[in-house]
Design a protein that fits this description.
CATH class of the largest domain: Alpha Beta
Shape: globular
Number of domains: 2
Oligomer: single chain
Strand content: 15-25%
Order of helices and strands: EHEHHEHEHEHEHEHEHEEHEEEH
Mean pLDDT: 96
Low-confidence stretches: none
Largest sheet: 7 strands, mixed
Radius of gyration: 20 Å
Strand order of the largest sheet: 8-9-7-10-13-12-11
Number of strands: 13
Structural class: alpha/beta
Distance between the termini: 37 Å
């Protein structure tokens, strides 16, 4: 039995991870849940959806005792915080899956440019494996440090990757337009996530400067084996969770929607959590709500020779906690789908 310690387990991503793990049939066991805010309080009193599933309490974090209690640590903490923990955890011989952005990028200079913070353990960045199974499954199995992908990048990369890999699109033409529910901002209230400000309101933000931009570019560049630049515009929409990313790409040669769908179907035919939708059917966030699925759909704009590729995920599922469980399953030899084979919740 693999014992899992979750640092920051009371936040949205951490609590969603618990929801997936209590559904795991075996092999992965929640052994430790820390929370600085709720230390000493019962998990089910803070997270009432877990009543009857977890009877233990949140504990304060004691980095020095982790090795005595767990085999792997999941860090559900913000960027800058994670990198202050990771070196000490790895030094204990433990494996780490990090929710934050601290190890997603390949070098400290890029991180410091986009996150406006000094990276305190840049020597570990090249060791981290980007935790997207659809791209790095074999490396994830052996990784000591897995950097869980961001939610926006997960949807954008999965929407664009097959045609980028095919060499079928102009690499300087990619536009990513994403709509997200507000839970991606975390549980602490802010002006831009306060309910009266969000209800019946849609707004774009961080245009051209969003921190997930270099992550999308890094991974699509790796797929293309040459530099890729994207224009990325995220939006907040008045819903709790879910992301719909629409990716516009200019084709290098004429292609029908049916031909593009065939490329996607072949590319993802062995992927358990990517569902390529049939002709004329487009992704919707409700279909993946609460799940680890990514639904991908396509349409060709023949007039402009652009392909419109769409991907829907739950930002807390495939965009966060579901991906962690998928990565843990790979790291410890479990069935990759264990704890995750559940449909979305409609309506």
């Amino acid at each position: 039995m693999i014992k899992i310690g979750i640092v920051g387990a009371s936040g949205y991503s951490g609590s969603e991870l618990l929801r997936f793990l209590v559904n795991h049939s075996g092999g992965l066991q929640v052994a430790l849940c820390t929370s600085e805010t709720y230390a000493g309080q019962g998990i089910e009193s803070v997270l009432p959806n877990l009543r009857g599933f977890l009877s233990s309490a949140f504990e304060p974090l004691d980095l020095d005792s982790l090795k005595e209690n767990v085999d792997v640590v999941v860090l559900a903490v913000p960027h800058k915080v994670a990198m202050s923990f990771v070196p000490q955890i790895l030094a204990q011989g433990l494996r780490v899956v990090d929710f934050s952005a601290d190890y997603r990028l390949g070098d400290a200079e890029t991180y410091e440019t986009w996150y406006h913070a000094e990276h305190t353990s840049p020597e570990l960045m090249p060791q981290a494996v980007y935790g997207l199974p659809e791209r790095y499954r074999a490396k994830i199995r052996d990784a000591q440090l897995v950097a869980n992908p961001g939610c926006y990048p997960t949807s954008a990369i999965l929407a664009a990757m097959p045609l980028v890999a095919q060499g079928a699109v102009e690499l300087d033409s990619i536009i990513v337009d994403s709509k997200s529910g507000i839970s991606g901002a975390g549980p602490k209230p802010r002006e831009n996530t306060h309910y009266p400000n969000r209800e019946a309101n849609v707004v774009a933000y961080n245009i051209g400067v969003h921190r997930h931009t270099p992550e999308i570019e890094q991974e699509l560049s790796a797929v293309a084996s040459e530099p890729v630049r994207v224009t990325f515009t995220p939006h907040l929409v008045p819903m709790t969770r879910g992301i719909l990313s629409t990716v516009y790409m200019h084709l290098t040669e004429k292609m029908s929607t049916e031909e593009a769908l065939s490329i996607y179907s072949s590319f993802y035919e062995r992927e358990p959590f990517v569902r390529v939708l049939p002709l004329g059917t487009y992704p919707e966030t409700k279909a993946v709500l609460g799940s680890n699925y990514c639904d991908v759909g396509l349409e060709m704009d023949t007039r402009t020779r652009r392909v419109v590729a769409m991907a829907a995920i739950d930002n807390l599922g495939k965009g966060a906690a579901g991906a962690v469980v998928q990565n843990l399953n790979l790291m410890f030899g479990c069935n990759e789908t264990d704890g995750l084979k559940m449909p979305g919740m409609m309506p």
